[in-house]
Design a protein that fits this description.
Blueprint: E1 2-7, H1 11-22, E2 26-32, E3 42-43, E4 46-49, E5 61-64, H2 69-76, E6 85-87, H3 90-93
Parallel strand pairs: 1-2, 1-5, 2-4, 5-6
Antiparallel strand pairs: 3-4
C-alpha cells in the first residue's frame, strides 16, 4: 500500500481523496494546506496540517492537484522531495461517469 499526502484541502484535494478511497492500493495519511484556518480541522475524515509537517512524516508520495500546483512546487523545492511528487490532472481526479 502506498501512503500519500495530499497538498490542498480544497475542491481538487477532496476529489483526489475520493480517488484514493476508490483505489485500495493508496492510503491518504492526511492533507497539508497553506490556509492557517484549516490547520487542525478534518475533511472527509482526514486531518489537515501545515506543510511544514512534510519533513517530519514518513510517506511514499505527495499528490498535487488543482490551480496552485506551480506555487506548491516552488514551496516544496526547499523540502527536497522532488522524486516523491505526483501531479494529478483533471482527468485523474474526475469521478467516473457512473458515479455522476
Amino acid at each position: 500500500m502506498m501512503n500519500v499526502i495530499i497538498f490542498g484541502a480544497g475542491y481538487h484535494g477532496r476529489a483526489a481523496l475520493r480517488k484514493c478511497y476508490e483505489d485500495k492500493k493508496i492510503n491518504c495519511i492526511f492533507f497539508v494546506d497553506n490556509n492557517q484556518k484549516l490547520s487542525g480541522k478534518k475533511i472527509l475524515g482526514k486531518k489537515i496540517y501545515k506543510p511544514d509537517i512534510i519533513n517530519r512524516t514518513n510517506f511514499d508520495k505527495l499528490i498535487l492537484c488543482g490551480r496552485y500546483i506551480d506555487e506548491q512546487l516552488k514551496q516544496l523545492s526547499e523540502y527536497k522531495i522532488n522524486n516523491k511528487i505526483l501531479i494529478w490532472g483533471r482527468k485523474k481526479i474526475q469521478p467516473h461517469k457512473r458515479k455522476l
